[in-house]
Amino acid sequence: YATIQLQGIKKIYHIGGEELAALNGITTNIYKGEFAALMGPSGSGKSTLMNILGCLDRPTEGSYKLDGEEVAGLDDDALARTRNKKIGFVFQNFNLLSRISALENVALPLIYAGVGHRERMERAMHFLEAVGLKDRADHLPNELSGGQRQRVAIARALVNDPHIIMADEPTGNLDTKSTKEIMEIFEDMHEKGRTIILVTHEPEIAACASRQLLVRDGQITRDEGKGVVMDVV
Ligand code: ADP
Ligand code: ADP
């Protein structure tokens, strides 16, 4: 079923006296278990769309149903609750806290979820193990390679068991070998049934996804998946 239903999504920024339509009418569904890659030139609206999909921001106009619930009009608290329950985030620059260990970074979302210390550590260790970093649990982020840091960030994104994972250029700062390792983890998450939305500039990364969406001037201009190509605009 459609985990994400977008209907006529617009995002207007006011800069000085000018209006800028960062998103100009996005209508699409993303189905449960899909692995969708968002591509498009710089400034086309990918980050704006990801912020809305990730419940970090609201559209100016349009409807966004997440698992059937309208979220476009939620207040900040309700939006944050939905986000923490349903969505895990992975960023280009990892966004780890530098003064705490890999394990404690992974456990962070569980603090906000009110999980007790012992269970936090057990669950965090389980996910560190799943990304192959059990033996690095006590290391600080700056004692890890870029690829290892991103694996810690992925474990953190998974620790709350969200069914949607959103990633903005997750391999943008990684070498070829680490990129391959990280993409294998995404493919594995996809096989396990999670819905993944990933922004990338690189066609080889987008090719790992089951669906490729091209964003241009705030609209989806191409939608391609499993051999089917649709020119939308
Ligand atoms: P992309 O991620 O594809 O590079 P963005 O979503 O960051 O594109 O930006 C889309 C357009 O919206 C750009 O013209 C950008 O300058 C503008 N924009 C993005 N965020 C803001 C903001 N907070 N305030 C004003 N304009 C913004
Ligand atoms: P990306 O590397 O994903 O393309 P951007 O450089 O487009 O990121 O944007 C980085 C951040 O700056 C985003 O959070 C975006 O909302 C904000 N931003 C982008 N363009 C503008 C703008 N013209 N005015 C204000 N904020 C902006």
TrEMBL record:
Give an example GO molecular function: ATP hydrolysis activity
Entries under SUPFAM superfamilies matching the protein: P-loop containing nucleoside triphosphate hydrolases
Report if keyword Nucleotide-binding is assigned. Answer: yes
- Origin species: Mitsuokella multacida DSM 20544
UniProt GO cellular component terms: membrane protein complex; plasma membrane
- PROSITE patterns, per the entry: ABC_TRANSPORTER_1 (PS00211), ABC_TRANSPORTER_2 (PS50893)
Print the keywords alphabetically. Answer: ATP-binding, Nucleotide-binding, Transport
UniProt domain ABC transporter: residue ranges: 4-232
Q: What is this protein called?
A: ABC transporter, ATP-binding protein
